[in-house]
Amino acid sequence: MIGLGCDHGGLELKNIIIKYLEKNNIEFKDFGTYTPDSVDYPVYAKAVAKAVASGECEKGILICGTGIGISIAANKVKGIRAALCHDVASARLTRLHNDSNILCMGGRIIGPEHALAVTEAWLGTEFSGDERHKRRISMIEE
Ligand code: RB5
Prior knowledge:
Layout: E1 2-6, H1 11-23, E2 28-30, H2 41-54, E3 59-64, H3 68-74, E4 82-84, H4 88-98, E5 102-106, H5 112-123, H6 131-141
Parallel strand pairs: 1-2, 1-3, 3-5, 4-5
Helix pairs in contact: 1-5, 2-3, 4-5
The protein binds D-ribose.
């Protein structure tokens, strides 16, 4: 189950990602926002981050205008490793090395096709499990 969240700056891209997830039969829970009205991104960051940290959702995808605010907010929740990625290499590497559990993107920064390539790479890459990466993740947790 993928938890989704966005503010008004990320709504359009979130809706594109929803279509991609539906087409690929990937289960998701949409935590909002649902309309283009101006809202505060920390609300949606917190909702998705808590759902991922509690295990309700395996992973999350958060989108605001730049992806920056929503990633900063998500990373305040213990157990969350939210990665802001606007390229496929970073999306792959953050799964391999950081075992990131939330992908953040900026709806005003990245185009839809590129965003779907980033999403596909991030969802399709497993954590490497290497001891050195596990050690570093434990250090973050501490
Ligand atoms: C909202 O206008 C905008 O500040 C927000 O979407 C995001 O870019 C913040 O980091």
